[in-house]
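User: I'm putting together notes for a lab meeting next week and I want to include a structural view of one of the chains we've been expressing. I don't have a solved structure, so I'd like a prediction I can at least talk through. The sequence is below, exactly as it appears in our construct file.
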Amino acid sequence: MKAVQIVEPERPLVLRELPRPEPGSGEVRVRVEAAGVCHSDVHYRDGVGSVAFMPMTPGHEVAGRVDALGAGVDWLQPGERVALHYLASCRRCDFCIRGQEQFCRSVRMLGKDMHGGYAEYVVVPAVNAIAVPDGVAAEVAAVMMCSTATVFHALRRARAAAGDRVAVFGAGGLGLSAVQLARIGGAARVYAVDIDREKLDAAARLGAVPVDPADGLPQEQIHALTDGRGVDIALECAGLALTQQQALASLGVHGRLALVGITNEPFLTDSYGTVISRELEILGVSDHLRDELVTLMEFARQGRLDFDGVIAERLPLDAEKINARLDDLSAFRGRTRSVIVPGL
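Assistant: Thanks for the context. Below is the predicted structure for the 344-residue chain, given as structure tokens.
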């Protein structure tokens, strides 16, 4: 089979020919129909984040069809449409028992600790397969496995409730999903902040109020738009120290900042003047839970999520094209979400 892999740290991905993997006991082999290109994949390629071994096939947003079953797997059928929860947990440790599987003491991540979906086939634990309803495209199901699920988890972490005012910093794949999910949850108003006009237009079509930093500091614009009250929840999806500061400053009293985007750069704040005096909360967001994926798939089945403006491009399993898209993500250029379709 063909796979696009990280073969050296801080080097471009390479297309390689590999043996087709065989599923072991409790595992399933999936023929990949779609694999999302995520900003995290940039981190793994460029050494900002580490992978367990090399060569490594990245790709943790995956959907396809069941191709082969390992011993003991009797609840799936060949040809069944599935998307893949990217965290393989033990289901037995204290964290798993408490429903905090992303902190499992032996957790492995698809595309980071085990081979992922930038390939024609992938093998995963069968319990990680999520049924994809008829009418939900493979590309949609794939991107829901990370970007949509992560911001859904972020909104839950931030205790989002009907009537909240929500600001989303970064209107890429994460941010556009966040806009929709906040509105599904009954947000009174959603503000989308981005420097890219195309992304702001996409957010506006989904019901957000666009906030362009070219028109002034985003936090000042948001306070003006909310009659000085600020927002109840800010989701920082860009992974930049500057936007983290701006998101925090956009909050009103008892506001919650959910940090979704990944960066190694710290951000500074006036602990009393900004946080203590308004009793703000800063929340870390780490991955998501399997049950959240099931809920999201039901939203998609009901047609409550619109991905027409989120998926911007479909790519073949071509190392040069994939590297170019990762370069764009690294530089925060253009596009919302790109998806690899091995069959192209």
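A couple of points you could mention at the meeting. The two ends are 15 Å apart (CA to CA). The chain is about 30% helix and 25% strand.

User: Perfect, that's what I needed.
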